[in-house]
Write a structure and sequence with these properties.
heterotrimer, A mainly alpha (about 300), B mainly alpha (about 325), C alpha+beta (about 575), B: about 325 residues, mainly alpha, about 0% strand, C: about 575 residues, alpha+beta, 4-stranded mixed β-sheet, about 30% helix, globular
């Protein structure tokens, strides 16, 4: 995850072209066409939709609950257990299905929270400029390049492993990336004529922010947030793998961590949860890339 | 330019200060008294006290404290944070609270392992990432491009710990091969073959995602460059396509790639935490990880600070090199 | 060592500090950091042991060939060495003390006929409190870097060693050694006399424990003592040639070793040139290294893994009972566990067969208050089950009787980031069983260090706890004692808190030295504890499966930790 975000540090996100609300709306209308021109993005969307559906309708999709002992230990793949059973006889497919709930919910919540804070920080930093902006930017630079896993581990160790802790920690990891992009956007918008005009007409600063800057900037923030979702899922699974995930939850990362000890004789228990993580992240990355390309081609290659 | 560097350095120091204080405090939220754990079972109250003293846990946290309300500052000549910082600056980090071995010595011994892992990863990232990125850009939308792009996005999606596990175990299952595990770290100069057998698999695992990133960046950066006017001019001049791409295009488009590579080095430490465990490399990632779980406060503080310093310095270096590589950029 | 379990714990993501913390638990358990594994390869995954164990299946690899000289074995350790100081070390280091140092005499808890006279050639027990050991001449210290002369160990080395254990604040001193009233070396330094403060039923077990390791006195005083974290000096079969933090240790044959092989023309022991200990924290890496031939032994994670590995007929396997278990601890000073009926309800909620089947694939047995590998001092199965048998209906009735409600909410803590496979496998089963019996579990998962802190400081109502290596019945009994194993209230959650007569009875059992009387007393004690509702419930103890490369011959097996003292194994590359 850190690697991906780190790729954004080259600094060429900042000189983005100004975008207006009108062009944004126009792009929306082009969405369907563009999606057709974006097979990889469409594939990502399909993957994500499947996983989200799986999370929502888990009880209908999964033949068993994730915790029930549905069969003998380490059963191989069969019609009653299509992925086989794991070490305790729990159904691997059911855990595959239910595992999406933790991964997706943690990722979405932490990205939403962190994204909102990032937008706020970006707006403050970009609008105020000057010394405060410098401080923000240097902090963001450092935070983006810093090995995120190390800080995540310290935080989860300190606060004790729980759903809330994980969301909090991952949220912190989201903030810098969003801050940087939003700040860049604000910077260019700020110098736009209509903002200048509003300022000249004596409009109050918060009003300018809310009326003129936020709508554009929020859309941009959301795009960036989409591109970050995959990385956050990876981070959550890494924490789970290292034993600092959500205790006693059905989590892909934890499943890999436990099953890898029995890998030689029972490959499905390791392969399927790992594949679930990969697929979800892949889906989000493909989708995020495409959304970014469609809405803001200048951001291309920023990851 | 000089004022720019000075200003950046000052802000960098400020960031590092905030980082170190935050980590310092976070570690002290972690429940559990190291003294009790160290003391073991027949521990009496005064023994715990003695061990706390020995570990310096009875000292106040900071050199400066507010006591009895805001205006009354008290200064502590000995404090946990102050003494640790002094140790970092003087290079004497005291002894590990866990095994009583000198921390500086451990770090010195483990540093080459992590450095080699990082460098090897970097080399693999460059030699895989950039050529494939170029291929992908030059033959845009060809099957090769699609394949490279998909591989890259896949490389960014796989969890490191999962790939590392598979890379460790499956070759043994299929072909009866395993890299040398545990035991002695063989120095590259002593026995390059043995050394590479140890380091190539973990470096390859780490390089997977960073190479994927570089591949994507190279591709988009080169595409961007190829669209530029001067490229058209070059082509119009009748230069061969190869010359256009390699001598004009690539040179210009690699600027962001190279700088990003530098920054990746810092981020790789996160991956090293996991990969060093799985491939049993006795490096700093392994050390930091153990220290974290063993509540070896000062080691974790030191390692985070070192990571922070690396990041700040690399960031600055990136910006400076940017100005240097691209004369249009001016800092004030 | 402190057993596979701690080993496993320290595997992957943990290590010395954890191992240290572990010592807290296992330590409190009487610092029973008893050494595991056997023979050649060392580091079995698990601690085999038990006393005249029912079903201790000994699958020895006795060879008929002539032992060969030379070769090196390679062992993996999931934990790093903390120090080679014989009196403060824990975890990995302790496993290697029988290789480097000496004890007076060692008895196997698994094979009652086994006795290994090390530094003592014999001992007498003239009265209940006195033990007189005759020191063996010629137990010569090996070459070392600590500046300790290569001389014979004498009685005063024993005195110095035990004094140090008793007085060093961070030593693994246990209740046992605190009961030493006086010790004395004879004028010629060849007789060692020990007087105890009280008669002590577990003397035989404890005196040979690795915790009571004897080292030359020069090594235990400055300037050598402060070097012990990197070096060692002793008269064991091997000497420590090198140690590198995070990487491993190299042990070489001690040319001065006193022992000869009586069965092979009095050849000088040991046969192997040395042992390479590699630190491999990751379990998957450890197994891969073994499969690749980089290690000569490997403690299988479970029976399935052992079966899979054995299928190619590439290894030899040793199966032993293990003295570890996951336990459920209830703090009787906190509600609702002060109510005997609630504790008994929890007791009947536990279906041990399900753990045996699911976690251990049948290769385990149910435990009572004493775990089954301890042999016939544990209550017979039928009687045990008449007290604690699985009966969720009864649990519900007891809850109803105690509270008037059908269910009761209880807070239970456990170490959440446990890397110990067994614990994470027990947990989901345990939660379901408790819920099914009318307990509403309010989960309190904690980071390991937090958990251990709360566990030590009794800051909990109930806990599903990690297993420990309990080589002797003493530790299980101490858990039922109000003041805990060290008599300082650490881990003091015993049922004795509610019923002082249980405390008195435990003390009485521990002071009963006559074997028949002891057995009767300890059986009665278990019955009485059951009647009051035990506060500490061991669940099940499994078998361990240790695999060896075929080139390792003559592995001493069926001896548990004591196997480490026997050095007649050899390497035959052919």
């Amino acid at each position: 995850m850190s690697e991906e975000i780190a790729l954004g540090t080259s600094g060429f996100l900042e000189d983005r072209a100004p975008r207006t609300g009108a062009s944004f709306a126009r792009r929306i209308s082009k969405y369907a066409t563009l999606a057709r021109q974006n097979p990889l993005g469409a594939l990502g969307l399909v993957i994500i939709v499947v996983f989200i559906a799986m999370a929502i309708f888990a009880p209908l999709v999964a033949p068993y609950t994730p915790t029930e002992f549905a069969g003998r230990n380490n059963e191989t793949m069969s019609s009653s257990h299509i992925f086989g059973t794991e070490r305790l006889g729990r159904d691997i497919f059911s855990r595959f299905v239910y595992g999406s709930r933790i991964s997706l919910s943690v990722a979405v919540i932490s990205v939403l929270l962190g994204g909102s804070i990032g937008i706020l920080f970006g707006v403050i930093s970009g609008y105020l400029g000057g010394f405060i902006d410098s401080i923000f930017q240097r902090t963001v630079d450092a935070a983006i390049a810093f090995p995120a896993l190390l800080l995540l581990l310290i935080i989860t160790q300190a606060l004790g492993p729980s759903y809330r802790t994980i969301v909090f920690a991952l949220m912190l990891a989201v903030i810098p990336g969003v801050t940087r992009v939003v700040r860049g956007a604000v910077l260019s918008e700020r110098n736009n004529q209509y903002v200048e005009a509003a300022r000249a007409s004596g409009a109050w600063a918060p009003r300018i922010l809310i009326r003129h800057l936020l709508p554009n900037v929020v859309a941009l923030g959301i795009i960036v947030m989409t591109t970050l979702l995959g990385g956050i899922i990876l981070a959550e699974s890494a924490l789970s793998f290292l034993g600092l995930g959500i205790p006693n939850a059905t989590s892909w990362g934890q499943d890999v961590s436990k099953a890898r000890e029995s890998l030689p004789y029972h490959i499905p228990a390791v392969v399927f949860p790992g594949m679930a993580i990969t697929l979800t992240v892949l889906g989000f990355n493909l989708l995020g890339d495409s959304i970014r390309d469609i809405f803001d081609p200048r951001l291309r290659g920023s990851r | 330019m000089q004022t720019f560097i000075v200003r950046r350095l000052l802000i960098g120091v400020l960031i590092l200060f905030v980082l170190s204080v935050t980590v310092f405090l976070l570690l002290r939220i972690v429940p559990g008294d190291p003294a009790i754990q160290k003391c073991g079972l027949n521990c009496k109250e005064d023994q715990i006290k003695a061990i706390r003293h020995e570990l310096g846990l009875d000292k106040p946290y900071f050199p400066v404290a507010f006591e009895g309300g805001a205006p009354f500052l008290t200064f502590n000549t000995a404090s946990q944070y102050g003494d640790w910082l002094k140790g970092v600056v003087t290079g004497d980090l005291g002894t590990s609270t866990v095994n009583n071995r000198p921390v500086s010595e451990s770090i010195r011994k483990r540093f080459p392992v992590t450095l080699e892992l990082m460098l090897l990863t970097l080399v693999m990232t460059i030699f895989v990432g950039i050529p494939f990125g170029v291929v992908s850009a030059v033959w845009k939308n060809s099957p090769a491009d699609l394949l490279v792009r998909f591989t890259a996005i896949f490389g960014l999606a796989v969890p490191v710990f999962w790939v590392a596990t598979l890379v460790l175990i499956l070759p043994q299952e299929w072909w009866g091969y395993a890299p040398p595990l545990g035991g002695r770290y063989v120095h590259l100069m002593d026995n390059p073959f043995e050394n590479l057998k140890q380091f190539l698999p973990p470096a390859a695992v780490l390089a997977l995602s960073s190479a994927a990133g570089v591949m994507r960046l190279t591709r988009s950066s080169l595409l961007e460059t190829l669209r530029q006017d001067y490229m058209r001019t070059a082509r119009a001049k009748g230069l061969r396509e190869r010359t256009v791409v390699f001598s004009h295009g690539l040179k210009n488009s690699l600027i962001p790639v190279v700088t990003v590579l530098g920054l990746q080095m810092a981020g790789l430490l996160g991956g090293a935490l996991i990969v060093e465990q799985i491939f049993t490399l006795p490096g700093l990632g392994d050390y930091t990880f153990r220290a974290l779980f063993q509540k070896d406060f000062e080691v974790v503080q030191t390692m985070t600070l070192y990571a922070g310093v690396t990041v700040v310095v690399l960031n600055l270096a990136v910006d400076v090199s940017y100005a240097w590589l691209d004369p249009r950029i001016r800092y004030s | 060592m402190a057993g596979s379990f701690w080993d496993k714990y320290t595997s992957r993501r943990v290590s010395r500090r954890r191992a240290l913390q572990t010592a807290g638990v296992a330590g409190a358990a009487g610092a029973a950091l008893l050494v595991v594994g056997c023979g050649g390869g060392d580091d079995g995954g698990k601690t085999p042991s038990g006393e005249a164990s029912p079903g201790a299946s000994v699958e020895a690899t006795k060879e008929t060939g002539t032992p060969k000289r030379g070769g090196r074995s390679a062992a993996g350790s999931t934990a790093d060495f903390d120090t080679f100081d014989p009196h403060t070390a824990i975890a990995a280091s302790v496993t290697y003390f029988p290789r480097l140092y000496n004890v007076l005499v060692n008895f196997s808890s698994l094979d009652s006929s086994f006795r290994f006279d090390d530094l003592a050639t014999s001992y007498e027990h003239p009265d209940d409190l006195t033990y007189v050991f005759a020191i063996r001449p010629g137990v010569k210290v090996g070459p070392n870097t600590l500046g300790v002369p290569e001389r014979d160990l004498v009685a005063s080395d024993v005195v110095t060693s035990y004094d140090r254990i008793k007085t060093l604040p961070q030593s693994n001193a246990i209740a046992f050694i605190q009961k030493f009233a006086s010790q004395e070396a004879s004028a010629d330094d060849m007789t060692y006399t020990l007087k105890m403060t009280d008669p002590y039923a577990f003397f035989r077990d404890r005196i040979g424990g690795t915790i009571n390791t004897i080292a030359p006195k020069e090594a235990l005083t400055e300037p050598a003592a402060s070097q012990l974290k990197q070096a060692a000096a002793g008269a064991g079969p091997y000497i420590l040639r090198a140690y590198t933090e995070g990487q491993g240790a190299t042990l070489d044959r001690n040319p001065n070793y006193y022992r000869k092989d009586e069965n092979n023309n009095n050849e000088q022991l040991p046969y192997a040139d040395g042992i390479d200990v590699k630190i491999i924290t990751d379990r998957a890496a450890l197994r891969t290294a073994f499969q690749d031939g980089q290690l000569t032994s490997y403690g299988a994670q479970n029976v399935n893994e052992a079966k899979e590995l054995m299928s190619g007929d590439r290894y030899n396997q040793v199966k032993d009972p293990v003295n570890t278990f996951i336990s459920f601890a209830m703090n009787p000073t906190q509600k609702p566990w002060d109510d005997d009926r609630i504790r008994q309800a929890a007791m009947h909620a536990i279906n041990r067969q399900e753990y045996i089947d699911r976690v251990y694939d049948g290769e385990a047995k149910a435990n009572g208050i004493l775990h089954w590998p301890l042999g016939d001092i544990a209550l017979p199965d039928d009687e045990r089950d008449s007290y604690q048998g699985y009966d969720p209906q009864k649990s519900k009735e007891l809850i109803k009787a105690a509270t008037g409600n059908d269910t009761i909410e209880v807070e239970v803590m456990w170490p959440a980031d446990s890397a110990i496979e067994e614990h994470s496998l027990h947990l989901p089963i345990w939660l379901q069983q408790m819920e099914a019996a009318g307990f509403k579990i309010k989960a309190r998962p904690e980071a390991f260090s937090t958990w251990l802190d709360d566990y030590t400081n009794l800051n909990y109502a109930a806990s599903l706890s990690l297993n420990q290596v309990y080589e002797y019945a003493e530790f299980n009994l101490d858990w039922q004692h109000s003041e805990g194993p060290a008599r300082n209230n650490i881990y003091g959650i015993g049922v004795g808190k509610l019923y002082p007569e249980i405390d008195a009875e435990i003390d009485k059992v521990k002071a009963t030295t006559e074997p028949e009387e002891f057995k009767k007393a300890i059986l009665d004690l278990q019955r009485h504890i059951y009647e009051k509702g035990p506060t500490f419930l061991p669940l099940v103890s499994p078998y361990s499966f240790t695999l060896y490369q075929k080139k390792i011959k003559n592995i001493p097996s069926g001896l548990g930790a004591s196997g480490l003292y026997v050095n007649t194994w050899y390497i035959d590359e052919a």
